Amino acid sequence: MTLLIDFLCRFAGGLAVALCLTSTTLVPGGFFRVNLLVVLGLATFAGLLASTVGLTLVGWLMAMTALTAWVGSILMYADRRRGGLLCCVLATVGGGLATINVGDSAAAVGVPRLLSGCLIGLTVNAMLLGHWYLNAPGMRVDALRRSIDQTLVAWGLVLAITLAAVGWQFEAAGGVETGWLSRCSQAIAAAGTVGFADRRQIPPTQDAAAGLPETPGRIPELSGSKKTTAGFFNQPLDQTSLALLWLRWLAGLVGLPVLLVMSRKTLDIPNTQSATGILYVACLAVILGELTAQLLATPSMTAGVAVLQP
Question: Exposed (0-12), middle (13-18) or buried (19+): which is 181, by Cβ within 10 Å?
């Protein structure tokens, strides 16, 4: 349930960010009104789910985000663009704070989650903007081209943080006697699961905490901010984690920019309908990639990966 709440908070906040970056001079007010209603639905659903699992603060933040989006849609309907944009900014703040408070609020974890939400929101916003050309065929193509460029920037930031995490975990494997290729693959796996977890803080096993000799072959459990990557470099990944890792990289980090560039090149024809069709596939790729990244980062997945083979 927390995984779904986290995704909804990211989605709502990211879509609000995309609306803040969309030009009000190139795009009609109706587009903002409809998308603010989408933010309203996402925030309402996230708030209701958060209240059922005891995430009171997140529930209140998403309730305020939903209320702000509703007011913003009314203002955009009345063609009060400044007031509507202010509501978009407030919805961005609410969605961002909710995203941070769903899980670990440390900067090394919170910033990647916020960027993930921006990437999802910008991709979906570009797709919806392309679809809006059916309602406003006279709208300039520059609006969609700019939206795709913003999405590519967000993807670049997400990729940079992911590669930084890979480098961080690659250095963690320096003391393990293994080949360079194996070390590199395990670092990618660790970056996809525990990210920038502190490698130096390894919690004791239950036997060691009780003053008993530790059982051979056991490794510390991974929990909270104390998760360690020690187990990643002693054994291969299980098939489920490996499949999810491939899906995260191929769909969310490699396939997405290819689709975005294809869509942008299609606008040079120009053909907004074909570009929108490609953006539909890009939305599927980014949602699959970011959801897989969330699943890989869950404690159950990280604990499952770091299990020594008998």
Answer: exposed
Two structure tokens written together for 232: 């990643």
Domain boundary assignment for the chain: 1-103, 106-310
Q: How does pLDDT run across 179-189, given as a tens digit for each residue?
A: 555 555 555 55
Cβ-Cβ contacts under 8 Å for 254 (sequence gap 6 or more): none
| Cα 133 from Cα 136, distance rounded (Å) | 5
Percent of the chain with pLDDT over 90: 46
Using the 8-state DSSP alphabet, how is residue 270 labeled? T
In the numeric block, the tokens 């907004």 are attached to 272
For residue 246, give both structure tokens: 């491939």
Alpha helices in 53-196 (DSSP H): 56-77, 81-102, 107-132, 141-172, 180-193
Give the length of the chain.
310
**Chain centroid offset of residue 278 CA:** 20
pLDDT digits (tens, 9 = 90+) for 232-265: 444 455 677 778 888 888 888 899 999 999 999 9
pLDDT tens, residue by residue, 134-164: 888 888 899 999 999 999 999 999 988 888 8
